[in-house]
Amino acid sequence: MPTTFLSYARRFLATAVLATGAAVLARGSYARHLRQGTVAGPGSTVTVDDGIQLHTDVEDHADARLTIVFVHGFAASSQEFHEQRAALRGAGRLVLFDHRGHGSSGWGRYRRATIDQLGHDLGQVIDAQPATIPIVLVSHSMGGMATLALAKQRPELFTERIAAVALLSTAAGRLPATNMPRQTAQAMVRTHLATVAAWALWLTAPLIDVIAPFRRQWGQRWLLHKLFGEQGPPEKAAGLVEDMWIGTPMSMASAFYPAFVSYNVPAALDVLDDIPVLVLAGTNDRVIPSERSENLAQQIDSAELVLVEGAGHMVNLTHPGKVNKALRELVDRAQP
């Protein structure tokens, strides 16, 4: 057995032990950890079929020929698209919504925290839009995964209703391989240690919430370094990301960890071959390396690949000019 595999195995077993301690130290937080709150915050909502209300924000546009739906990433909210919202205002109806457990949306049982469920939710957000107006999906990170999950679940939408797709800083699967050597990642998944580790992290989440790392300077430094890369974020973008991560309790966000381990939908890429697709990433993405976007573009016949030199994972916040230009061109290609 490779030394690297044993090293990772020891780390994850240690995490499982810590999880037990967290259950004792943070037991007062576990009622909140397991709670189900279906009701969204103030504003418009789309109620999905398990009763969860998804907070939505719709900007109608007279004589709109397109509906542009924004699908945000992990531990974020629809606010991450504020630059793109401003740039595309007037190009069509704008629909922004928060994933379950994120932003102002409701939260269901933790076993529904899966990428497939997010794809299902996205489909119901689309179903709530006017059926006669084509849709452009603008998705980032986990939002891109939800988009690809939807393509696998309901491929007919991508011929009948969805006119174009933007996949920003995302991947079609095998996420453990982005953070460790491929052979090690494969061994972790094959032996189910990656899944055990993900559940261990979920168990420790209430303790992490008590520590509140993203309210502390060391946690904020780690977060910004991870999401923005070497160039660092503009001050406004840094504040927005910190607010979104603080506003997404680890008790909720961590429920998605096991889903990231099992996520793998390469077959869904064929569904996108006949519509305009933008694949965009920063070359210094520390969360999902840009090589994964290059791989996506190679597998989608209609894809245009845009790499933003030096940008990190939150490329839509750090380089809005380049991202917005690419999105406007995609919207132009999608016009009926």
Content-based structural category: alpha/beta
Q: How are the strands ordered across the major sheet?
A: 1-2-4-3-5-6-7-8
- Tell me the β content: 5-15%
State the order of secondary-structure elements, H for helix, E for strand: HHEEEHEHEHHEHHHHHHEHEHH
Contiguous uncertain segments of 5+ residues: 16-34
Rg on CA atoms, Å? 19 Å
Major beta sheet summary = 8 strands, mixed
Q: What is the terminal separation in angstroms?
A: 56 Å
Mean pLDDT over the full residue set: 82
Query: How many individual helices?
Result: 15
Shape type: globular
The helicity comes to 40-55%
Please report the total strand number as a whole number.
8
Structural features:
globular, 8-stranded mixed sheet, single chain, alpha/beta, 14% strand, 336 residues
Describe the 3D structure.
The chain is α/β, with parallel strands linked by helices. It contains 15 helices and eight strands. The chain has an eight-stranded mixed beta sheet with strand order 1-2-4-3-5-6-7-8, with helices on both faces. Strand 7 (277-282), helix 13 (290-299) and strand 8 form a beta-alpha-beta unit. The protein starts with a helix and ends with a helix. Residues 16-34 have low confidence and may be disordered.
